[in-house]
Structures are given as structure tokens and as C-alpha cells.
Amino acid sequence: MLKFFAALLLVCSGLAQAQDALHTDLPLSYLAQASTDSRDKPLIIFMHGYGSNEKDLFGIKDVLAADYNYLSVRAPVQLQPGSYQWFAKKPQTEEYDGVTVDLKNSGELLSRFIKAATEKYHTQPGKVFLVGFSQGAMMSYEVGLRHPEQVGGIAALSGRLLPVLRAELKAKPDAQLKNLAVFIGHGTADSRVSFSGAKDAEAFVKTLGITPEFHSYSGVGHTISEAEVDDLQAWLKKVAG
Fold it and tell me: What is the pLDDT of residues 25-58, one digit of tens each?
């Protein structure tokens, strides 16, 4: 799916094997390149898309700031060995949507994971940033917008804001949302999660008092381009320090 990062992982194969060990001490399994000895470092949490796993986005860390802490989370629902999802997709829907009970269960697990990781790695909620691709992007909206007190920002790559979240946020506006940093990136040629979904998300988060940073990538499909990683790197440097 992400050929650029597959190649990057091969280049970086000489890194210490410890960072590739699966950790199971928190509510979700995860990979880590992080130190509990440091205090108040930015903590970046990657969330993969449908059918993938915790290894998929982890290579992005190698082109981001070396002095951040990085975790990459495995979604809780196994499809087959090495393949996981955050939620089941609703059948026969025109736009990508998820089963509500799955969203709730995964959202609660992810929220607990973020709280525990924030404590384990001795940082502050304002220094925690979620970076999600596809279903992972949808989960970044799900948790970041419901619990803005837990994170400093979210980056939604090739995702969309799902209808149940939109409806419930309208009913319960949160004053803390306006302090949330939001990055939205999407390829214009995405055939799995439509580009229009990203534009709709941008418009909606603006109604919450948030000013998102939006990036479109002409001709790019359902993947992450090198240009998007460059934009993500610049955004994180700006909002995480």
C-alpha cells in the first residue's frame, strides 16, 4: 500500500531491533521508538488503515524529528494474521462509513491507550499528536474531536469524518476543540475514500472553531506521497516544537 515507506524501512533495516518489538503493556499493542527517561517530549502516535498493521506507518518516523517519541498502534480487530481493522465498514453505503458499535469500542480503547502512553512516556496531553491513515485517520477524528483534552493535534491522511461523530459533535460542542491543531491531507485521485470527504471534514471542523491545515495532492490515490510527508513534517515542527 505504502511503497515509499516499504522502501524506507529497507533502507533503515540497520536500526536497533528493539524498536521493532511488539509491546503489549498498554490497552493496545504497539511498536515504539521512545524513551521513558525523557520528560515532555512530543509523542507521535501512528494509526494504520484497514487490513494493515502497526508496521505500516512506522517508517514515517525516520524522516521526522529524531528527538520525538514515536508509537505505532495495532488496531484491535484481527481480520487474518498480520491484518487488522479499527471497525467494520457499513455495507452498501455511498461514502465510507463504519459500524457505530465498532467505532465506540475502538475509540474507547484508543482513548485509554493515549492516556496510558502519555503517563508512561512522561509527556503532556498538549504534546501528543495522532497521525492516522484511512481508517486510522477516521479514528484520529473520532478520538481527537471527542477528547480534545487528551491530544495537542491530529493528522488525518486519506480519511473522512464519519456521520455519527459529526451528529454527536453538533449536539455537544466542546470549547477545548478550538485549541486542537488539525492537519488534513488527501490525494485528489483517491478511489477508496473520496477527496470530497476530506473537503467535507475541513468545512465541518471549521464550524467547531478549528482552523485546519489542508493539503491536496493532485493525481495521488489512496496512499501517502513524499510531498505529504514533507508537509506533515513541517506541520509537526510548527505545532509540536
Answer: 999 999 999 999 989 999 999 999 999 999 999 9
Given 134, 140, 158, 225, the catalytic residue: 134
Catalytic annotation on 134?
yes
Catalytic residue among 106, 190, 215, 225: 190
Q: Is the pLDDT of residue 171 over 70?
A: no
Cα gap 65→120, rounded to integer Å: 20
Using CA atoms of 42, 48, 54, 60 in order, give the dihedral in degrees to the nearest 10: -50
Active site residue 215: no
**Do 233 and 64 meet the contact criterion of CB atoms below 8 Å apart?**
yes
Residue 190 is among the residues annotated as catalytic for this protein: yes
Residues contacting 82, CB < 8 A, separation 6+: 53
Nearest to 128 by CA among 23, 47, 184: 47
* pTM of this structure: 0.90
